[in-house]
Amino acid sequence: MLVVVHEDYGALSKKGAEIIASRIRQKPNLVLGLATGSTPLGLYKELIKLHKNEGLDFSKVVTFNLDEYVGIPPEHDQSYHYFMRENLFKSININPSNIHVPQGMFGELKISSFETDPKIVQFCDWYEGEIHRYGGVDVQVLGIGGNGHIAFNEPGSSLGSRTRIKTLTEETVKDNSRLFKSTADVPRYAITMGVGTIMEAHELLLLASGEGKAEAVRSAVEGPITAMCPASALQLHRRAIVLTDKKAAARLSAEFVTYG
Ligand code: PGA
User: Fold this and answer.
1) Which of 22, 107, 174, 249 is the most buried (most CB within 10 A)?
2) What's residue 171's pLDDT?
3) What is the model's pTM?
């Protein structure tokens, strides 16, 4: 695992965009895994700049997003479909048919048996199959939750898990409530790629910024590999790069890191 500490959020966002741009230049039909949340916003702004100023071409790039809330429609301003459209897709020349964001609307669900709901199971199998059909994800962008989650794989998620429906922890609901009118409006379930799905990407690029992530970054990089910190699975990956700012790296041992 390569851990690169940057002066600040701006520098880590630029570095992330440089890495992705170089992979797209090497392989114009790159299969790019994307994440939502506050952390990748700077990265997406930098990619848009590279597209506008340097002609970075997304026309053949294929994208797969990590996750989507269950029960809010794609037009909802907190859906991840909306987030991706507003913060990246509408400003680059991506072909809409190359975009994949998990479905979040499945009609009425019986909460007691949603994990075996045929509509959900069928969708999740299809999503995994699509990733496979494109030859797998080349580069997967990841954020990290304060609790060590990646995508919506909350602590306790199997490290071999595949795309499925997950219940969000209270901590995640509370973290995400800043974006909704009230905590009651935050969805309680999400469709998410599994840790096993993520680990099959050829390269992982995890971004972390701010002191709120320092403990999660320490556990992910230096802690034991455990389902209680799903991001710690990255220690088993052959090509995992962790880009942090100084605050998110504050609890790492110095010998672990390089400086960007
Ligand atoms: P954030 O979320 O980028 O909004 O901090 C990251 C995550 O929870 O995975």
Assistant:
1) 249
2) 86
3) 0.96
